[in-house]
Amino acid sequence: MNTKKSYPIVLSIAGSDSSGGAGIQADLKTFSALGVYGATAITAVTAQNTQGVHSQLAITPQMVFDQIVAVIDDLHPSFVKIGMLSNAEIVATVAEALVRQPLSIILDPVIVSSSGHRLLSVEAQDILKEKLLPISMLVTPNIPEMTALTNMPLSTYEEKKNAASYLMDYGVKAILLKGGHEEGNIKKDILFSQSECGIKSTTFSSETIYTRNTHGTGCTLSSAIAAFMARGCRMEEAVAEAKKYITEAIRAGANIETGHGIGPVNHAFNPQKMFLNDF
């Protein structure tokens, strides 16, 4: 009798990027490149390219809810990655759909696009903190997003730790504070997590790659973390592997011209076969 097999499955709840470099499109490319099956629940449709966001249209909250439930009821994903949520109603709806599900949630708080276009309403930020942080295992803000979520200074390590502690008070288990917006030849991301002795931190450093092709890097990193965790990695290992993946994806796409603005990374620089689980 043949043993039945299944793929590791990750559900991405995010917006659509018509240029293919970020959002749902970047998530699916990342999942596929890392050998994981990706399912989606689309929260918004954007008209954008490498030069900016032209317009966006939020999906109705009921349709967002229905997409999530349909995927969970049938495919039973083990991990959920959350990206662009667009407005307060969708934030609340996503929380409602997930709150009673035994899922590991990675939240990428997409607030502002790379081109400076606001993708999450100001009023929705409080609902995100109140309803999604308590059920998330990891949140992955960059410096501008962390500033928006905490309204706290982030110049020193202690200030960053204090801001992470503030978000953890809402219930999230860990914070990956991304340092891509900071100056210097080395970029440092800091993973803050809870331990018996308080908040511990692990720093992940990578050499700065000087290129304008960085569209969708945040989406890609959070999706890569979800993919590696779905493959069985513990959080710290998954972050380390995801950091390697996004660094090489940026490097592989650094000199490629796609559009006339901020181009995408090369998600498929080293695609892997689909992972299989026995059950």
Low-confidence stretches: none
Structural class: alpha/beta
Helix content: 25-40%
Computed Rg: 18 Å
Number of strands: 11
Mean pLDDT: 93
The quaternary structure here is single chain
Give structural notes.
The chain is an alpha/beta fold. It has helices spanning 23-33, 61-75, 88-98, 122-132, 143-150, 157-168, 217-230, 235-253, and strands at 5-6, 9-17, 37-49, 52-58, 79-82, 104-107, 138-139, 174-177, 186-195, 198-207, 277-278. The strands form two sheets. Strands 4-3-2-5-6-7-8-9-10 form a nine-stranded mixed beta sheet, sandwiched between helices. It starts with a strand and ends with a strand.
Summarize this, please?
36% of the residues lie in helices and 24% in strands.
SSE layout:
Layout: E1 5-6, E2 9-17, H1 23-33, E3 37-49, E4 52-58, H2 61-75, E5 79-82, H3 88-98, E6 104-107, H4 122-132, E7 138-139, H5 143-150, H6 157-168, E8 174-177, E9 186-195, E10 198-207, H7 217-230, H8 235-253, E11 277-278
Parallel strand pairs: 2-3, 2-5, 5-6, 6-7, 7-8
Antiparallel strand pairs: 1-11, 3-4, 8-9, 9-10
Helix pairs in contact: 1-7, 2-3, 3-4, 7-8
